[in-house]
Design brief:
about 400 residues, Alpha-Beta Plaits, Ubiquitin-like (UB roll), four-stranded antiparallel beta sheet, globular, nickel, Pyridinium-3,5-bisthiocarboxylic acid mononucleotide nickel insertion protein
Length: about 400
């Protein structure tokens, strides 16, 4: 499984992440082309190599043009002021020609950011102003990062314990403690510490990306092997390098063999509607699989066996969900072994556009090829062609490509 591990000893921000991806070899011109698809203007991107206390890193900066001329003048409808609210930002993402996977993940990050801002300022998500971070650079940072993850075919994000810095920061609402309230809200459940640097090291955008898309927090995952290391620079010059260290690597099959657990609960008194909700929550915390089996209990009562496949580190979270969301009063669990095929992706061309296919190999042989559902669904809707026809064509194209 291809994953990244972010070493956040000097905080995290959207532009630090983008810088790290460029340093890791994502082509700068491709990233610029993707950002151009958003059709927002009033900015230019600078991407340069810098040295932070002796460490070479890439610094990406979004420079806003005429930012002050129209700062309080919305009457002219200037493009870079339309996207001040969540619905406007969603519209910009939806109207772009980005692929569906990138759009969905980008919107997920924005929703998480808006929920945090709304909570701390006592407003609703649709009324949140994205002025703290400047709408344009927030859009570029979030969509750019999501696109890079997709481009590199990253399947999971892990982060170290995050250094937030400490002290106070001036923002449009007045003086705020570090981490800023929205950032603190986004970091709930994610291990972080204040360190000894009196600066705002984590931005709401950086925290939102980690919170919305992260898989595991606090330490390098077991069995992770790093293949490439890259550095993205922040704005500050500090006594420590103001960079994020990005490891691109994989979690090998050998370690996926260890410490896999099956949790089970027999339930005979729960509304069937609840199961789907509980399953979604289990998948959100990282369950590898969740399934339901009809069973017969004492006095011939029909019931449901809920089974959850998790790694050892997610045992407590999965147990909490079973107790809080279902009516069970007991959960049993036991270790299981498994062998899994290696998964990779390839992009194939069809008459209606490109689609990704997932290729599974075991012992060096291809054992299964499946077209990516979201990509095919998007092509089917856009071209008004039956989904099964798209899937069939993409499958045939991929088999020809793999011959």
């Amino acid at each position: 499984m291809k994953v990244i591990y972010l070493d956040c000893f000097s905080g995290i921000s959207g532009n630090m992440l983008l810088g790290a991806f460029i340093d890791a070899g994502v082509p700068e011109e491709k990233l610029r082309a993707v950002i151009a698809k958003l059709h927002i203007d009033g900015y230019h991107l600078s991407i340069e190599r810098v040295v932070k206390t002796g460490l070479s890193a890439i610094h990406l900066d979004v420079h806003l043009e005429h930012h002050h001329d129209h700062a309080h003048d919305n009457s002219h409808g200037h493009h870079h002021h339309k996207h001040r609210h969540l619905p406007d930002i969603i519209e910009i993402i939806d109207c772009s020609s980005l692929n569906e996977t990138v759009k969905e993940a980008s919107k997920k990050v924005f929703l998480r950011l808006a929920q945090a801002e709304a909570k701390v300022h006592g407003t609703t998500i649709d009324q949140v102003h994205f002025h703290e971070v400047g709408a344009v650079d927030t859009i570029i940072d979030i969509v750019g990062t999501v696109w890079c993850l997709n481009y590199l075919e990253i399947e999971a994000i892990y982060t170290s314990k995050i250094n937030t810095g400490f002290g106070f920061v001036q923002c449009s609402h007045g003086i705020m403690p570090i981490p800023a309230p929205a950032t603190a809200e986004l970091l709930t459940g994610i291990p972080h510490y204040a360190g000894n640097i009196e600066r705002e090291l984590v931005t709401p955008t950086g925290a939102a990306i980690i919170a919305a898309l992260g898989t595991g927090y606090g330490k390098m995952p077991s069995g992770f092997i790093s293949h490439k290391i890259a550095y993205g620079a922040g704005t500050w010059n500090l006594e420590i390098p103001n960079v994020v260290r990005l490891h691109i690597g994989e979690i090998t099959e050998a370690t996926e063999n260890d410490e896999i657990l099956v949790l089970e609960a027999n339930i005979d008194d729960l509304s069937p509607q609840i199961y789907e909700y509980a399953m979604d929550k289990l998948f959100e915390i990282g369950a590898l699989d969740v399934w339901l089996t009809p069973i017969i209990m004492k006095k011939s009562r029909p019931a449901t066996l809920v089974s959850v496949l998790v790694t050892g580190q997610d045992l407590d979270k999965a147990t909490d969900i079973l107790f809080s969301e279902t009516s069970t009063i007991g959960v049993r669990y036991y270790p299981v072994k498994r062998k899994i095929a290696q998964r990779g992706f390839a992009t194939v061309h069809s008459p209606w556009g490109n689609a990704k296919v997932k290729i599974s190999t075991y012992n060096g042989k291809i054992c299964h090829v499946s077209p990516e559902y979201e990509d095919c669904r998007h092509l089917a809707k856009e071209n008004n062609v039956p989904l099964k026809k798209i899937q069939q064509t993409v499958l045939e194209a991929s088999i020809n490509k793999l011959k």
